[in-house]
Amino acid sequence: MTVRIAVIGAGIMGADHARIVAEDLPGATLQVVCDMDEARARAIAGRYDAEAATAPEAVIARTDVDAVIVASPDSTHAPLSLACIRAGKKVMCEKPLSQSSGECREVMQAEAASGTRQIMLGFMRRYDPAYRQMRAALTAGTIGRPLMMHNWHRNGSTPSADFTGAMAITNSAPHEFDILRYMLGCEPVSITATQPMRSDDKVAPVVMVLQTVDGQLVTVEVNNNAAYGYDVKAELVGETGTIATNHVSYTRMDKGATQSLGHDADWRDRYAEAYRQQNKAFVRWVQGGGCPELAASAWDGYAAAVIAECGVKALESGSRQDITLIPRPAFYAGATGKVA
Ligand code: ISE
């Protein structure tokens, strides 16, 4: 069965998903590109001979659309995921599911009431070869029991001048929150967050320390104004060894008595393979394969939202915040994390 996909949102990520679906996804076809800005929808749809549309709910309801990728602004993710659940269509929703944990709970309730898993959440790092190798080494016992995980998340610059420290936690850090839960297989129970002072008015890095229910420590640095490029790395420290992600670069420059590696401009290049694998898993799922083993669920979206809410409180109050999740619903029993 060829899966006819609608991509909702024709911004940076929507355009990238449209390209992947149209050019790189066996078994799928790009049926519709939808954006409130008609010209933007037409520009992307026109590249791949797809239709353009401006009304997302009508697109989701179309009988010639089998599945949906939501890549519209963050605040629309939950309402559009709910519309997909109502229409009985599987959705690959970009992160975050919502910045409100309450809204994530509404989505989880609706999904559970529908009786089947319908949402795959775009925490694509789970499909990245580096993180996969890290997890394989960990689960094989190669580095012993994990003690600490260090994470660095650097963007060249912020998407807008009014980007804040709280946004670093709600927009960028959810990737870190998800990967630490996924990697360590347990939930964080507390978080602190603080920032150094910059000499200008740009948003300074946010440094967070989380403790897990199993007593591990996790550090997260989110620096949205790193100035030099997109750079995400992680190191897992076990009791008998460590494993770190390598810098990914196809070439190395030697010049002027100096050796250098390039940095990607943003996440689309760095995680190109992860996005491709994630979307392939989505198509297989829509075609009737089981729910993808690696995929993040609405539960994972909820957990990331709670951690982000606590992170923002920690940053604003200057004090450590306890992280409390609701007991994981039985419906999400196979999803990441230990049953509470
Ligand atoms: C963006 O939304 C992402 O998902 C990127 O991975 C992250 O690095 C960036 O900071 C976010 O704005």
UniProtKB/TrEMBL annotation:
Domain GFO/IDH/MocA-like oxidoreductase: residue ranges: 131-243
InterPro entries per record: Gfo/Idh/MocA-like_OxRdtase_N, GFO_IDH_MocA-like_dom, NAD(P)-bd_dom_sf
Keyword Repeat appears in the UniProt entry: no
Cellular component, GO, one term: cytoplasm
Could you list this entry's UniProt keywords, alphabetically sorted: Oxidoreductase
Q: Could you tell me the Gene Ontology terms of the biological process aspect for this record? A: NADPH regeneration
All copies of domain Gfo/Idh/MocA-like oxidoreductase N-terminal, residue ranges: 3-119
A Pfam family found in this protein is GFO_IDH_MocA
SUPFAM superfamilies, A to Z: Glyceraldehyde-3-phosphate dehydrogenase-like, C-terminal domain (SSF55347), NAD(P)-binding Rossmann-fold domains (SSF51735)
Q: Where are the transmembrane segments?
A: none
As one GO molecular function, the record gives: oxidoreductase activity
Q: Does the keyword Oxidoreductase apply?
A: yes
The entry's family comment says: Belongs to the Gfo/Idh/MocA family.
PANTHER family xref list: BINDING ROSSMANN FOLD OXIDOREDUCTASE, PUTATIVE (AFU_ORTHOLOGUE AFUA_2G10240)-RELATED, NAD(P)-BINDING ROSSMANN-FOLD SUPERFAMILY PROTEIN-RELATED
- What's the name of the protein? Gfo/Idh/MocA family oxidoreductase
